[in-house]
Design a protein that fits this description.
With about 325 residues, the chain is mostly beta strands. Helix content is about 0%, strand content about 65%.
Length: about 325
C-alpha cells in the first residue's frame, strides 16, 4: 500500500515561461544555527510565484518564522501534508509569494530556535513570467511519497520533467526513460534534482527496509521562438581572444552569459544585458597560457535558457 502522495497544486497554461530552482542540501535549523537563507533570482517581476518547503520534525507543535525580503510571511507551522516516518514527521508547506517576490535578488529565511531543531530538506521556488512569444502548458506536483524497496513508480509528463528525490540509504534509485537509465541516486543525506524529457520511471533497488523519497514532480511543455547565438573568434599570438556574439534567433534576450574555461577551469565570466535580435557584440579577453579554451554561452529569456558550447582555436603562424 502506498505511503504518502504527491498532489497537484497548480496546473494550466501561461503565455510565458516558468523557472524553478531548489536548495537541495538538508540543513538543521536550531538554537545553534537559528536561520537558513535561501537566495533566488528573478529575471523580472513574476506574474506568479511559489515557495515549496519540505521539513522533518519530531512533532507537529513546531514553531518557526518565515521571511521573504524582510517581510514576515508567517509565524505558524501548519503543513498542508504530513507523513510519519519512524520517529519523525515529514511536512509539506506551499506558499503563494507573488506579492513579495521582486525582480533581481530575493532572500527567503527560515528561522527556528529550539534545542531539538528541525531539518529543512528542500526549499524550492517557482516563478512564472509573462512572455507573449512563449506558451507553456504545465503541471506542478509536490508532496512526500515514500518509495519502498523494490518499488517502481511511473511519472507521466509531456515535454520536460523536473523531479526532486532523496535517497539517504545504501541503496540505488534508478531513474529510467525511453532511452535507458538516466541516472542512479543513493547514499546522500541531501536531495537530488533530475531533468529529463518524456515518460520516466523510478526504481528503488534495495534489500533494506528504509524508503527513499519523492518530493517534487513538475512537467511542462513549451512552445518557444528560436533562441540562437552565433559565435566566432580566435586567440592571437599575444594570448588575446577576440570574439563576436550575434543574436540570430527570433527573440530579444534578457541576458547573454559568457563562461570561458581553460582546460576545464573557469578563467573568465561576463554577462551582457538586453541583446536585441540581430545585435552583434565584439568582446576581448586574455588567456593566461596555451591550452583548450572552451566557451559556454547561455542565452536567457524570462528564465528560459539556451546553451551553446564552442571551442576557440589558437592562431597559428
Amino acid at each position: 500500500m502506498p505511503i504518502g502522495k504527491i498532489a497537484t497544486f497548480d496546473e494550466g497554461s501561461i503565455n510565458g515561461s516558468i523557472e524553478y530552482s531548489t536548495l537541495l542540501k538538508s540543513t538543521k535549523v536550531s538554537s545553534e544555527n537559528r536561520e537558513l537563507l535561501y537566495t533566488f533570482y528573478a529575471e523580472k517581476k513574476p506574474v506568479k510565484a511559489y515557495i515549496v518547503i519540505i521539513t522533518e520534525t519530531r512533532d507537529l507543535t513546531t514553531k518557526w518564522r518565515l521571511w521573504l525580503n524582510n517581510f514576515s510571511l508567517t509565524k505558524e507551522f501548519k503543513p498542508i501534508d504530513t507523513v510519519r516516518v519512524g520517529g519523525s514527521y515529514y511536512n509539506l508547506n506551499i506558499y503563494d509569494v507573488t506579492h513579495l517576490t521582486r525582480e533581481g535578488k530575493n532572500e527567503f529565511v527560515v528561522s527556528h530556535s529550539s534545542i531539538e531543531g528541525i531539518w529543512v530538506h528542500i526549499i524550492n521556488s517557482v516563478l512564472f513570467y509573462e512572455v507573449p512569444e512563449f506558451k507553456t502548458n504545465y503541471k506542478l506536483r509536490a508532496g512526500i511519497y515514500l518509495i519502498q524497496p523494490s518499488e517502481e513508480i511511473e511519472l507521466d509528463g509531456e515535454g520536460k520533467n523536473y523531479v526532486v528525490v532523496r535517497n539517504p540509504n545504501k541503496s540505488i534509485l534508478r531513474v529510467v526513460n525511453s532511452t535507458g537509465t538516466v541516472t542512479t541516486i543513493g547514499g546522500s543525506l541531501d536531495s537530488d534534482e533530475i531533468e529529463v524529457k518524456g515518460h520516466l520511471s523510478i526504481i528503488h533497488e534495495s534489500s533494506q527496509r528504509s524508503p527513499a523519497f519523492l518530493f517534487l514532480h513538475y512537467s511542462e511543455n513549451s512552445i518557444t521562438p528560436s533562441i540562437s547565438i552565433n559565435v566566432n573568434g580566435k586567440i592571437g599570438k599575444d594570448n588575446k581572444a577576440v570574439i563576436t556574439l550575434y543574436n540570430d534567433g527570433e527573440v530579444d534576450l534578457d541576458r547573454v552569459l559568457l563562461n570561458v574555461m581553460l582546460n576545464g577551469v573557469t578563467i573568465h565570466f561576463k554577462s551582457f544585458d538586453n541583446m536585441k535580435i540581430g545585435q552583434k557584440i565584439n568582446y576581448e579577453f586574455f588567456v593566461p597560457k596555451k591550452g583548450n579554451v572552451h566557451l559556454r554561452i547561455v542565452g536567457v529569456k524570462s528564465g528560459f535558457r539556451k546553451i551553446l558550447d564552442k571551442d576557440l582555436e589558437w592562431e597559428t603562424a
